[in-house]
Amino acid sequence: MPPPLKLLVFGQNGQLAKALSRLCQIQDITAQFIGSSTADLAANPQQAYELITQSSANVVINAAAYTQVDKAETDKAAAQALNHHAPKNMAQACKAQGKGLIHISTDYVFNGQAHAPYELGDATDPINIYGATKLQGELAVKDHGQGVSTCLRTSWVYDGLSPNFLNTMLRLAQNRSDITVVNDQIGRPTYAADLAKACLDIALGRHSGNDIKQIYHVTNSGTPISWADFARAIFKAAHISCRVKDIPSSGYPTPAKRPAYSVMDISDYEAQFGPLPTWQDGLIRALNERKI
Ligand SMILES: NC(=O)c1ccc[n+]([C@@H]2O[C@H](COP(=O)([O-])OP(=O)(O)OC[C@H]3O[C@@H](n4cnc5c(N)ncnc54)[C@H](OP(=O)(O)O)[C@@H]3O)[C@@H](O)[C@H]2O)c1
To answer: Are the CB atoms for 229 and 237 separated by under 8 Å?
Structure first.
């Protein structure tokens, strides 16, 4: 019998970090969370190595990232430090210490030109700085954390309470009767609590010595949708009568390009760990989280 699972989580106030914290409490899993106020990994990514070396945790989860996709275009050094150099240090430390590492990556490693869900081995080709730095992080984790690490790619992450698409839509709908939303980016939303559960499934699997892959795709399941479809689903589920007008991405220019198609094949994860909840189910739970 291995000793009980003990986690070190990078990230504290982020969407995934908070969901992990709640789940660890429910499942009685010991976990230490390290936020940016304790260790600024953009300023000093090497700190990750030292913190892991000093920790008695047996699995590390990296829920920290530079996630401001547009800002990354002009803040490349910070994005690279946090999304590439910090996970590289984590992988090196975990490998040296024989600890497991779960690193979170993104659909943005792909160029979005596919017409069928991206599979684990499909060619990567990021189209913005955020995606490029996240891909560098993935590759560093793969190279330096061989045998101990897993990258978990996800997409369109949201929860009930953080600043995100769900809460932006609900806020805007308070004083508007219609909202324009892009309809030519297609993906699958992921409720942070479901991503957190997947992280724990993989952490427990790694810790128990089960056969764990180097990469998984984890999103909510269900028919892929556009952001405009998601906005409509949010208003329907929240009983809000706000009209959604579809616009193309060209009508909402952003500093960073977005992939047009972000859907990933989640079947490898589901075959091993069971079905992922649908995005509709995740949305209901996210809305309920706002009422707690
Ligand atoms: N959000 C999405 O739509 C999305 C989509 C695909 C993939 N992902 C990936 O999923 C993972 C989790 O994303 P999320 O939505 O939970 O992100 P988030 O809510 O933006 O949280 C970012 C986390 O990174 C930490 N962080 C930021 N700057 C830092 C710094 N300088 N030093 C140390 N830590 C720092 C934050 O620390 P504090 O706790 O101190 O705030 C926070 O915990 C990330 O790897 C992200 O790339 C996200």
So the answer is: no
pLDDT tens digits, residue range 257-279? Answer: 999 999 999 999 999 999 999 99
**CATH code of residue 30:** 3.40.50.720
- CA distances to 26, 37, 204, 284, 289 from 292, rounded to whole Å, are 16, 27, 29, 13, 5
Q: Is residue 93 in some structural domain?
A: yes
Number of domains in the chain: 1
pLDDT in tens, 164-197: 999 999 999 999 999 999 999 999 999 999 999 9
Residue 26 vs residues 12, 190, 264: alpha-carbon distances, Å: 17, 20, 29
Query: In angstroms, rounded to a whole number, what is the distance separating the alpha carbons of residues 232 and 243?
Result: 8
pTM of the model: 0.97
Q: Quote the ligand 1 centre to 35 CA distance (angstroms).
A: 10
**Which candidate in 66, 118, 130, 216 is catalytic?**
130
Q: Which structural domain range is residue 54 located in?
A: 6-159+188-221
Q: Is 269 a catalytic residue?
A: no
**Ligand 1 binding site (Cβ under 6 Å of any ligand atom):** 11-17, 35-37, 39-42, 63-65, 67, 82, 104, 106-107, 134, 154-157, 162
Whether the CB-CB separation of 200 and 29 falls below 8 Å is answered with yes
